[in-house]
Amino acid sequence: MLVIGAGKSTAILIDYLLAQAEVHDWQVVVADRDLDVARHRIDGKSRGTALEFDVADAAALEKLVKQADLVVSMLPAHMHLPVATACVNHSTHFVSASYVSPELRELHHAAERKEVTLLGEMGVDPGIDHMSAMARLDALRASNASIKAFETFTGGLVAPESDDNPWRYKFTWNPRNVVLAGQGGVKFKHNGRYKYIPYHKLFTRYEVVEIPEYGKFEGYPNRDSLKYRHHYDLFGIETIYRATLRRPGFCDAWNCLVQLGLTDDTETLEALGDMTYREFVNSYLWYDAAMSVELKLRAMLKLELNSPAFDKLQWLGLFEDRPIGLKEGTPAKVLQKLLEEKWPMGADDKDMIVMLHKYEYEIDGERWREQSSMVTKGSDSERTAMAKTVGLSVAISAKLVLTEQITQRGVVIPTTPLVYAPVLKELEQHGIAFTSQVERV
Amino acid sequence: MLVIGAGKSTAILIDYLLAQAEVHDWQVVVADRDLDVARHRIDGKSRGTALEFDVADAAALEKLVKQADLVVSMLPAHMHLPVATACVNHSTHFVSASYVSPELRELHHAAERKEVTLLGEMGVDPGIDHMSAMARLDALRASNASIKAFETFTGGLVAPESDDNPWRYKFTWNPRNVVLAGQGGVKFKHNGRYKYIPYHKLFTRYEVVEIPEYGKFEGYPNRDSLKYRHHYDLFGIETIYRATLRRPGFCDAWNCLVQLGLTDDTETLEALGDMTYREFVNSYLWYDAAMSVELKLRAMLKLELNSPAFDKLQWLGLFEDRPIGLKEGTPAKVLQKLLEEKWPMGADDKDMIVMLHKYEYEIDGERWREQSSMVTKGSDSERTAMAKTVGLSVAISAKLVLTEQITQRGVVIPTTPLVYAPVLKELEQHGIAFTSQVERV
């Protein structure tokens, strides 16, 4: 078995595979650009081999893939394609946690002919969301339920014990994606009506949800919820909505940044080298020699004196006359730099993955509302909730492919019972499980 | 002389050239895809020849350009390049009213070597704006003035006698450009500060200006005002601002369309074929079974009962349960279709070009504020203000090139006195002139 990429969120994945290697008499090769990183993951275990490897080295890639029975690719999403192509060539199975790109999907028929499984979207979001939702939707359909509404919410957040800043948020994943989230606008369906939200209104249109023991969250909608009608066979559905979770108050404050224009990633700022954060904010306000930057911002965004959103902006240091220290960049780059200073995960901080599905359905003329949620907390800065949920999903499914319990070939995502049932079962043994409440409407 | 394109706004251009052809013993070939259109423009005059011609026919283009001493290209902006390239090959001069594209600018050295003039940006905006501003800026600099601020405003509007709808606007030019105006955001400089406005705030940040006899206008900023520092040699300037003029009330109402998301041209609407205008608007509002579309819109946009902006939306018919009648498209396409029904120029309507420059400068320690404006009204639906200002600028400069009064070679825009002085002088004889007011600050 070959694991390519040994960075963040692979600790639990590789531990699991090394343990399974003992059981099934496998060898696990961990290949990374940085040999020390690969060695650290293997930690001297006899079933593991660490390798220095650059995915751009096509000859080395071919050789490694040829020797393997299965490749787990933990590379960034845009780097999977050459690996998957080599896998098809050498009849080697492939597992990844990333979205299946249109280019990767084109390998489907070739993979089928070669009897190769290219399993994608096998992480948490996408991954556990597909599996948990499809398990419940298939069960409901088997009970002759007519499904009227499906809403799904996921968030990578800080655990309550580390939730200690006014935004109630820290970067547990790619900061750039957080800054640019939702750009391009949103579409979904609500009670039979198509709904569109332009980007500049997105963070005013969140839905508040509550999870027992964990309290309230805000869910702002993801870009295209409509395409999940295809994935989940929900064509006639009246409401379909996918959203990202934040803690209450986040969206109002983030909306201020959007309204100002600070999340824009297209325009390059002039004379950025000399600019302070205060001047940066002032560039997005009108000119008035007599008014302070704070007052102009309050006036433009109509923020009251006691506005919690204003306090969050102030806490970020947006009004400080402190040099930004970037030579060139877009407003989004400036904002990301500031946020990375303000929202880092501390050494003792724990993260938390929260997932929530809401269903509405009719059985025998009665309408039901069901809410199902999963919360996983990290143990430490390596064994994060993200590393657990992604790593276990990938690792379990890799094992199931190699032990021929998953036998579907071609490009596969975990929306069929043959895939999701055994993976969910084992995830539950590791404490990754959903709890539900049902009520009659 | 070869004129390619005989559509809208070429009536006055071609009349002028045919009259000059009598004086200078020239022949004018008018080439258009539609032979009847070309014939109509020549109207039987002996100096003219009408030709059917498709610019995609490279061989025909080469032949026509080779026979000509000068080509006037009235094609859409993106179609000039092959014509200008042929002109360089055959040592034929070239005049157009469009912005000089980066690709066209690359012909500069080749044109210089061939002693060819490629004169661009020779219409109204760009064109008369360059010439009138540079004439004044050069005169001020010759008087040792230090120029502190330059703001320039242009609008293609309806003349007061045809100003009879609540928006005080009709389409006198490309509707698509009006619907998409400002997308991508804006940058300019105000009192030494760089200022950026994201698209969704653009129509709240207009400046009100007043022109004697014509009353008030709103100017919303154009995309990139900063690049005009290069064109006009204004590198140290404290304020530089270019804007588009509308009548008061327009921007507030247009801002409602922007806020809703109706000007977006990226997202394709689902099930558009069955949709009415009312349902279209409702797609951009939240779901609420008990509230009317009107009330939800008022609530989202915070519009009072007596809001003039709301009345303008209602006048457009946005709340009517009338089928849109488009099979597919973006919100911007739907909006354009509706606006083309509501804002057409009637057969008796007259248009109006309004241009205004504002200067601030210091001479001998005294600070002055100057405003200079030009208003040109159309005579009828063919001899529009647009046709006059664009046509005369192009025609006069074409004559000046052929009579060797303009001798600058290579790619030229009318920012040098050798070009703008004779053109402005003759435009003034045709009644296209600026009037100024100066006051000490």
Task: Describe what you observe in this structure.
The structure is a homodimer of 441-residue chains. With 441 residues, chain A is α/β, with parallel strands linked by helices. Chain A folds into 2 domains: 118 residues, NAD(P)-binding Rossmann-like Domain (Rossmann fold, 3-Layer(aba) Sandwich), CATH 3.40.50; 219 residues, Dihydrodipicolinate Reductase, domain 2 (2-Layer Sandwich). Chain A is 35% helix and 23% strand. A 7-stranded parallel β-sheet of chain A has the order 3-2-1-4-5-6-15, with helices on both faces. A 7-stranded mixed β-sheet of chain A has the order 10-11-12-7-13-14-16. Chain A has a two-stranded antiparallel sheet with strand order 8-9. In chain A, α1 links the parallel β1 and β2. In chain A, α1 packs parallel to α15 and α3 crosses α4. The longest helix of chain A is centred in the C-terminal third of the chain and has 18 residues. The radius of gyration of chain A is 23 Å and the shape is globular. At the A-B interface, β9 of A face β9 of B.
